[in-house]
Amino acid sequence: MHITLIEDDIDLGQAVADHLVAQGHAVEWLKTAAHARDALARMSERRDSDMALLDLGLPDGDGMDLLAEVRRQPTPFPVLVLSARDQIRDRIRGLASGADDYLVKPFDLEELSARVDAVARRYALAPTPLLQLEGGAQVDFHGQVVRRDGLVLSLTAMEWALLRCLAVHPGQTWSKDALTRRLYSQGESSDSNTLEVLISRLRKKLGPEAISTTRQLGYRLERLPG
Amino acid sequence: MTPRRWSLARLLRHRLLAAVALLWTAAAVVATVAVRHELNDVLDSALLSLAEQIPLEAGALAADNIPSLPAIPEEDVMHVLVRNQQGHVLRQSGPTRNMPWPLDAAPGLQSVNGWRVATRRTVDGRLVVQVGEPLNERRQSLTESTAALILPLLALLPLAALLIDLLLRRSFKGVQEASEQWRVRPEADISPLQANDLPTEFDPMMASINALVDRLQGVVRAERAFAASSAHELRTPLAAARAQAQRLVAELPEGDAQERALALVRSLDRLGNTATKLLQLSRVESGIGLAREPVDLRQLATLVLDEFRHHADAVHRLTVQLPDQPVIVQGDIDALGIAIRNLIENALKHAPQAQVEVRVEAPGRVIVSDDGPGVAAETLATLSQPYSRGSTRSEGTGLGLAIVARIAEQQHAALVLQSPPPGAGQGFRATLTIAAAAA
Asked: What is the pLDDT of residues B41-85, one digit of tens each?
């Protein structure tokens, strides 16, 4: 998934972003309400982010106002609130303003992942936990394990991210642009991790039949029927 | 030893009554003395004037018969005796013949042998006229008049006491009303005391008290500000430290360094836990948001449980029993939320591996129970003791339930701790009963 993190604390934002990237998500990290407002407006048009993690206590504005703006937009967009405000009234206000979940700081990063996944599932953004692919590979997203011919294969974080992205809607064709936007955090570019390289590495591990290429259009994950 | 308490009203009542009694007694004594004096004068002049009225001309006594002697009633206390120089009785009134009156008494008044006697002689000294009155008679009439003076005063004394009581009560009414107003003030109200109904004598005292209240207000405001703003100030760096430490665990290879990073995460968890408890305590103590408003316990329990939904430890151990209908109580949703969260945390912490059940029941009960080892009877007694800051032995072992107990006190709720719960072999049960909202 492509996650937009809106958090002004450098140390917290860094750790959360790293954790999410390690989990296979692409992260765009914004540190002010002004930047977040622009990004959220753009997202509603281009749909290049799947979820926002929103800190309420931003230096240049209240996250609650941002939340209200997101909710005024016609398309539903998952927002998970991260807040230092731990009272029930705060939680009620957050949820009533349209937050899909409300997590109080300090939090366990694993709990954050669990909540991100839960919200994603509610929006049908998460892949089915267990997936059988053409070519015989079995993907367990929950346990982060891929098995093929009785062997356990290890995937890099970026490979997981790509697989996760393709697996949300198996059978749907993804354009290179859309995948790039979703996979790479802003300003990130790595020769060893270009989309073409990632695709070829995944094909090697999962079997060439698992991912098919449609000329001019993009890539598609091939799921075993049944 | 505390000095004995005293009541101003009682002191005034006693002293005023004593002063009135003393004054009355003094007045009665003075009056009695004056009355005795006057009465003696009046009676003496009666004796003298009777003695004067008896005609003692020589001719009148020539004969044995003295017709001009005024008749004296038999029953009268005064006796008349007319004798010659030799003591021969010429005339007398009353039956008694031998009056113990000396013949040679000087003219005028004397008290002799139990009689008050007025003596008069003729110029030649041949005849002695004496009019007497028994002294005991006179004493009796004196006593009677004194009694008539003092007895009504004695009867009036209880009346005076009643009057004093009434006056005092009326005078102290303002003080009582003010105390009653202050007694029913909400606990969180720290505004200066109003004393419009109090007498001006209380002004210096009220000024001192309100100066103290003013300082207290500053302290409470500071604590409220601390509780409200420190949440963010503390939680964000804690969250950053914890997340960074967790990243460290993830990025380090297995080994000593990773163990250290794990220890760091655990320590930060404890620190966060303690900070949270202290902030909660500070909130509760400073009386932030002690609202009295309808709260749905069912919704509240759902919200609190949502915090535990993704806890690795809680997810398989926590079960919930909610009623079909909302359970509306009167209270403060944040304070009740803190209480329920602490009860759940307490159960999860002290009953590891045990099943923890949260149940909400009408009309206003939240029950958190576990089937863990429970606690010993003597420990249970200390747990349910009213909150004291001294009981903060270590995090988790006293602060959590102490906070719940304090919240229960403020929210007019009852907290009952049982171990083992009735009908169970082992375990621990905390029942929080909150007043239902008025329909």
From this structure: 988 898 888 888 777 665 555 445 444 455 555 556 778 888 888
Chosen CATH of B290-433 out of 3.30.565.10, 3.40.50.620, 1.10.1040.10, 3.40.50.1820: 3.30.565.10
* Side-chain-facing half-sphere of A67: CA atoms under 13 Å: 25
How far does A110 lie from chain B, in Å, by closest CA?
A: 9
pTM for the full predicted model: 0.64
Which of helix, strand or coil describes residue B432? strand
B95-108 residue pLDDT tens: 556 778 888 888 88
Cβ within 8 Å, pair B337-A87: yes
Q: What is the ipTM of this complex?
A: 0.71
**Is the domain of A104 the same as that of A198?**
no
Interatomic CA distance for residues A75 and A67, integer angstroms: 13
Residues of A in contact with B224 (CB under 8 A): none
- Which of B224, B230, B247, B366 is the best residue to mutate to test the A interface, defined by the most A CB atoms within 10 Å of its own CB? B247
Return the closest-CA partner of residue A155 out of A209, A196, A205, A207. A205
Contacts with B242 from chain A: Cβ below 8 Å: 106-108
Q: What is the count of residue pairs from A and B with beta carbons less than 8 Å apart?
A: 91
Q: What total of structural domains would you count in chain A?
A: 2
Cβ neighbour number for residue B412 with a 10 Å cutoff:
12
CB contact under 8 A, B239 and A88: no
Interchain proximity B240–A84, CB inside 8 Å: no
Among candidate residues A67, A99, A122, the one where a domain is terminated: A122
**B-chain residues within 8 Å CB-CB of A19?**
243, 246-247, 250
Tokens at residue B379, please?
A: 């420990």
- Say if CB B421 and CB B360 are below 8 A apart: no
